[in-house]
Specification:
The protein has 415 residues and is of the alpha+beta class. The chain has 3 domains: 34-133, Immunoglobulins (Immunoglobulin-like); 180-293, Immunoglobulins (Immunoglobulin-like), CATH 2.60.40.10; 335-414, no CATH class. 23% of the residues lie in helices and 33% in strands. The strands form 5 sheets. Strands 2, 4, 5, 8, 9 and 10 form a 6-stranded mixed β-sheet that branches. A hairpin with a 5-residue loop joins strand 14 and strand 15 (223-225). The N and C termini lie far apart (181 Å).
């Protein structure tokens, strides 16, 4: 009876161990050895280039031997061995359960062109790798990307050009061209008899075939067409693509040519015509010698300009004289200077008033002699009242007294 519970307990432990061990094995997926070369792989190169073909392999920790072979025309795969130009290497540093076998052509040739594959014995065979060797043929795999970039650039450039035309180009688009005569209203031409006079008639034809004629208004209020003669010449010249000018030239104009003129423009259908404004030609009966005087309408503007210039110069000169010229003008003595009282004590070398040398004698000026000499009177105690002239220029430096007669004589000689 005691062995039965022990037996049941042992069976329970065994079943538990089997369940746990089985679940543990199922929790880790199984590792399968295989060759992981992608289907349809292509390698391109030119002769004498270096080319490397790689074969990734999943070894799952097993020791494997990777071989390379080339498919022959007999549909058999010939094994490739390492030579001077062909090198076979393996590298297992990328992952723990993987390695990469490399087939390197050091200087590939046209004979190396063909299908290659890597094998793991007879158990695992990889997909074929197409090695294409072309003589001078370039790899054009980048061409689609180039087309995409060029298309994007063209799209951006086209959009930019249309944007610029929208904001700038269309604003400056030329307006519609209108045919017409461009003679200014009120045009007047003046000339003297026997002179040469040319009248212009600018015309806008806009590329159409036009005919320009000239005519003169008669006293009967009718327009008479002018034809070319010995004294009258009609010519025309093109100024631009859509414009021309017709010239009516009087070689020797006369009094009879005085009057009103106009030019007429007719297009190709003749029925459409354009008439200019009237041109007034005035011919004066001056002799040829006086004809050279010409038009003096500019004389009024010239006179105004000269007057303004003269006024500016006058104001400038007066201003300069007020600041510089008048400062140099000698000043007139004031009445106080003429009434100045000078004592004998103020002058060191004064010989006295009229020869008197006593102190505190006063010499009073009587009259001024043109700012050169001053007439003084010596009021002595005896009242003699002698008069003398003193030099004003030597008043503070060297004073010298003269009698009235001597002072006047010296003053007149100084003049």
């Amino acid at each position: 009876m005691d062995r039965l519970p022990c037996t049941y307990l042992l069976i329970f432990y065994c079943l538990t161990f089997v369940c746990i061990y089985g679940r543990g094995q199922d929790s880790f997926p199984s590792c399968e050895v295989q060759v992981m070369v992608q289907r349809g792989m292509i390698k391109k190169a030119a002769p004498q280039q270096r080319l490397t073909v790689r074969c990734p392999v999943k070894h799952c920790g097993e020791s494997l031997n990777v071989t390379w072979c080339k498919l022959l025309e007999t549909n058999t795969c010939e094994q490739i061995n390492q030579t001077e130009d062909v090198e076979i290497t393996q590298d297992d540093k990328h992952a723990a359960d993987r390695l990469v076998s490399s087939l390197t052509f050091k200087r590939i040739s046209l004979h190396d062109d063909g299908l290659y594959r890597c094998d793991l014995g007879d158990t695992q065979i990889g997909h074929f790798i197409n090695v294409s060797v072309s003589d001078g043929e370039l790899d054009l795999s980048w061409l689609p990307y180039f087309y995409i970039c060029i298309s994007a650039v063209l799209l951006v450039a086209t959009f930019s050009v249309f944007t610029l035309l929208r904001f700038y180009g269309w604003r400056h688009s030329s307006p519609s061209c209108d045919v017409g005569v461009m003679v200014r209203r009120g045009t007047t031409k003046k000339a003297a008899a026997q002179q040469c006079l040319t009248v212009e008639c600018p015309v806008k034809h806009c590329g159409e075939l036009v005919n320009v004629t000239w005519c003169k208004l008669l006293e009967t209020n009718q327009w008479e067409q002018i034809n070319q003669t010995e004294d009258v010449e009609i010519t025309q010249g093109d100024k631009s693509v859509d414009r021309l000018t017709s010239f009516l030239t009087f070689k020797r104009i006369s009094i009879h040519d005085d009057g009103l003129y106009r030019c007429n423009l007719f297009t190709g259908d003749i029925q459409t015509g354009y008439v200019s404004h009237i041109i007034n030609i005035t011919v004066s009966a001056e002799v040829p010698g006086d004809a050279g005087k010409g038009d003096v309408s500019w004389l009024s503007y010239f006179s105004i300009s000269i007057s303004v210039l003269f006024l500016v110069i006058t104001v400038s000169v007066l201003t300069a004289l007020s600041f510089y010229g008048w400062k140099l003008r000698p000043s007139q003595p004031s009445p106080e200077d003429q009434q100045e009282t000078v004592t004998v004590d103020e002058v060191s070398d004064h010989a006295g008033c009229g020869g008197v040398t006593e102190q505190n004698r006063v010499c009073r000026p009587v009259e001024a002699c043109q700012n050169i000499f001053t007439l003084y009177r010596d009021d002595d105690d005896d009242g003699a009242g002698k008069q003398f002239c003193r030099s004003s220029f030597s008043f503070r430096s060297h004073l010298k007294d003269y009698s009235a007669e001597e002072g006047r004589r010296r003053w007149k000689s100084a003049l």
